[in-house]
Write a structure and sequence with these properties.
Elements lengths: L5 H7 L2 H30 L3 E7 L2 E6 L6 E4 L6 H11 L3 E6 L9 E2 L10 H12 L3 H13 L7 H6 L6 H14 L19 E3 L5 H17 L4 E5 L17 H9 L5 E6 L14 E4 L6 H6 L4 H8 L5 E6 L2 E6 L17 H49 L10 H42 L4 H46 L1
Parallel strand pairs: 3-8, 3-9, 4-6, 4-7, 5-6, 7-8
Antiparallel strand pairs: 1-2, 9-10, 10-11
């Protein structure tokens, strides 16, 4: 066995090899220290979650402590997938209020499988927040629940048990019972599972107001017994809408603000900033997926007009992240699209610029025209809906003289007044659409006559876009209100049929 001494080994190795090793030793030490420090930072920052890439730079968000996140974007833009990336990347527990059944891959249950016991005050708060009761209705509800058992199941019987001597009192009572009639068909929180055992509550099979009530009760229960988790609220605008009165605040807003003290991260998900309470401004991260922002929303978010244009052109899975005054465009998910590219050889640089501006202008004009046509179709649908509703109202009018305990006559007058207001709103919207159509035609003529005034056309395009977005939202709001009227009409017809 041959044993080589250290000196002999050094003599065997080439001198230039030894010199190279000696020269790069400091570099090796620096690399080792860098890797060590990186690993230490990585392990200490266990709540830094990788979302995607800003160009070639990886982007992480830090949800350590009690940081909140708000995600905005139109339907199908990737909001839910972004939320899931945060959830899957965190070691914390989860509690998801699943409005549309998109989180069934987590430990998901329906409200009927849960066991939630609430105090009388919590039941009252949840019902008032859900049904937006008037002051007289709130007073009657509080009195009824205090006299009765206080449970959700007994609310209707508690209200029925209140004796009202005056006509106005009976009207308030009848109106309150109509609002609460949905509770008769609900089976909420009769199960055996505790909230701490589940990750998601699937509300997708419930009616709209039932979803709101269930969400309010779940949040109240979680607030009473909080533990460090990530709370996700899908369709947050439905339970914490933008309040026109800046001095008022609803129960859900208070709960979200208070949950910070208990180490809870909240992820709010909505379609647009103007739909949701201004509480979102306190979030550490605002994630914007594809949507069309109004001028007011762009200002509220502290963005520039060109940022709004960028956001409107994002692909599915792309987003802009706002945090600490820094904005980053992040590609969370790559979606490949087949594009046909037409290559034209242009020798004159000025001609190239003219062609580029002309194409952009035509593209914007076509896009606005398409938006206008889509809104016009939606308005026609609302008008048709209105006509059908009026036909049903005439059916009720034909038996208006019938005496009945539900005071149908007063109900019809009140509903007709609301429908007349909607008809006025439809006519106003039609006038606005006509003015937009005239502006679009005028702009098309100006575009054909001259290639100047490009900036003016672009500004007018932004104005029209904001008008169209606002019209679209108002139409959606009207459609929702008309659906509510339709439910009242159905209820009235059923009472008439029962009476006959």
């Amino acid at each position: 066995m041959i044993i080589l001494r250290r000196r002999e080994i050094l003599n065997i190795l080439p001198k230039d090899f030894i010199n190279r090793i000696t020269s790069i030793t400091p570099i090796i030490i620096i690399l080792i220290l860098t890797l060590t420090m990186g690993l230490i930072i990585w392990f200490k920052s266990g709540e830094k979650i990788f979302l995607g890439f800003d160009g070639i730079k990886p982007v992480h968000i830090d949800i350590s402590g009690n940081k909140h996140i708000v995600i905005f974007g139109m339907t199908g833009s990737g909001k839910t997938e972004t939320a899931k990336r945060v959830l899957n990347g965190s070691k914390k527990g989860k509690l998801i209020i699943d409005w549309s059944g998109e989180y069934v891959d987590y430990k998901s249950v329906e409200p009927s499988e849960l066991k939630i016991d609430l105090k009388r005050e919590d039941v009252i708060d949840a019902i008032i927040s859900t049904f937006q009761l008037t002051i007289p209705q709130q007073t009657l509800l509080i009195e009824a629940i205090k006299r009765g058992g206080g449970s959700l199941k007994d609310v209707i019987n508690d209200v029925k048990g209140i004796e009202c001597k005056s006509d106005s009192g009976r009207e308030v009572k009848d109106a309150l019972l109509r609002r609460l009639s949905i509770l008769e068909k609900l089976s909420l929180f009769n199960g055996s599972k505790e909230l701490v055992e589940v990750e998601a509550i699937d509300l997708s099979k419930m009616a709209f107001e039932a979803k709101k009530l269930a969400a309010n009760i779940i949040l109240k229960s979680f607030y009473n017994n909080p533990n460090p988790r990530i709370l996700v609220i899908e369709e947050a605008q439905n339970i914490m809408p933008r309040n026109q009165n800046p001095d008022s605040i609803n129960t859900v807003e208070l709960i979200i603000n208070e949950l910070r003290k208990h180490g809870v991260n909240v992820i709010l998900i909505a379609q647009t900033p103007s739909q949701i309470s201004t509480v979102y401004r306190n979030a550490e991260y605002i994630i914007l997926h594809k949507m069309r922002l109004t001028h007011y929303e762009i200002q509220e978010l502290g963005l520039k007009p060109e940022d709004g244009e960028t956001i409107s052109k994002l692909d599915v899975g792309e987003c802009m992240i706002l945090s600490g005054g820094i904005k980053r465009k992040v590609k969370i998910k790559t979606v490949r699209k087949n594009k046909t590219v037409k290559i034209t050889k242009i020798t004159n640089r000025e001609e190239e610029v003219k062609v580029s501006k002309s194409e952009n202008r035509n593209e914007n004009s076509n896009g606005r025209k398409w938006d206008y046509d889509e809104i016009k179709m939606k308005l026609m649908e609302v008008e048709n809906y209105y006509k059908k509703l009026m036909d049903k109202m005439r059916d009720i009018e034909s038996v208006k003289i019938i005496e009945n305990p539900m005071k149908l006559g007063e109900f019809i007058d009140r509903t007709e007044d609301n429908i007349r207001k909607i008809n006025i709103a439809i006519n106003i919207l039609k006038d606005k659409l006509t003015s937009i159509e005239e502006e679009l035609e005028k702009r098309a003529i100006e575009t054909r006559q001259t290639n100047g005034r490009i900036e003016k056309v672009e500004k007018q395009t932004i104005i029209n876009t904001n008008k169209i977005i606002e019209l679209e939202r108002r139409l959606a709001d009207m459609t929702m209100r008309m659906k509510g009227f339709e439910e009242w009409v159905k209820e009235a017809l059923s009472k008439i049929e029962y009476k006959q």
